[in-house]
Write a structure and sequence with these properties.
The chain has 10 helices and no strands. About 55% of the residues lie in helices and about 0% in strands.
Length: about 240
């Protein structure tokens, strides 16, 4: 960076090219951070370049270090554009972690409030968009678990549409289970927890359709759990 001086276009081109050749060339992302200090918009260009290969899928595991963006002042506006870009390009089914978690893993304590405010504001601006809400909820489920209740209650205060609520993966969309567990019981417990949070809302009767939907999911999971137990019993004897 010192050799290239202020030639931002050359710096950008060199960094993106090298990143494709060797993902670990800037292992601690010091060079990346230096570029962002001078040109915060490079974050959007960097993420956009990740999708330059058609069909490319980006995992959180490959980009865990991106939480360093919170060291940049006023990065929120750029990050909002990054979220919009990722959500538009990333196929998310509610099973693995959404790529947007990359910006929230292992955040330093002094940056958590900024990160939390960003997520809450993004929710306020996009509560009508289930795809964007799914990214928000996934972050609250994996990287910012302490704000899950707040996100759910905030959403309900802004939007009581049962159809949109049903499109959001509040408890994820399946997963890998190990050991001698009853999956129906696990899912039922998760829905019961979600219902307990919804019941804390002050919205009142407008939430009846959503509460009914959650109760139906609980009943379904209970039946599913009973069938699992029955199958295991019959298989054993």
């Amino acid at each position: 960076l010192k050799l290239l001086g202020n030639d931002y276009q050359l710096i950008k081109k060199s960094y993106l090219q090298q990143d494709k050749i060797d993902k670990s060339f800037d292992y601690e992302k010091k060079g990346f951070l230096n570029i962002l200090h001078s040109n915060p918009s490079f974050l959007l260009e960097y993420v956009n370049d990740l999708y330059s290969v058609k069909g490319n899928y980006n995992s959180v595991e490959e980009h865990k270090e991106l939480e360093i963006v919170w060291r940049i002042e006023n990065i929120e506006n750029v990050l909002k554009g990054v979220f919009d870009l990722v959500i538009e390009n990333e196929l998310y089914l509610g099973i693995s972690e959404h790529f947007c978690n990359s910006f929230f893993n292992n955040i330093q304590e002094k940056d958590r409030q900024r990160a939390k405010n960003f997520i809450l504001n993004y929710c306020k601006e996009n509560h009508f968009n289930s795809r964007k809400m799914n990214a928000i909820v996934d972050i609250a489920r994996h990287s910012m678990r302490d704000i899950f209740d707040e996100i759910l209650l905030l959403f309900l205060s802004l939007n009581q549409d049962k159809n949109i609520f049903s499109q959001i993966h509040w408890r994820g969309n399946g997963g890998v289970y190990s050991g001698d567990v009853i999956i129906g019981d696990i899912e039922m417990a998760e829905w019961k927890n979600i219902l307990s949070i919804v019941e804390r809302s002050e919205i009142g009767i407008k939430l009846i359709p959503i509460k009914k939907m959650i109760s139906d999911n609980i009943d379904y999971c209970q039946e599913k759990g009973d069938l699992e137990r029955k199958r295991r019993f019959l298989k054993r004897y």
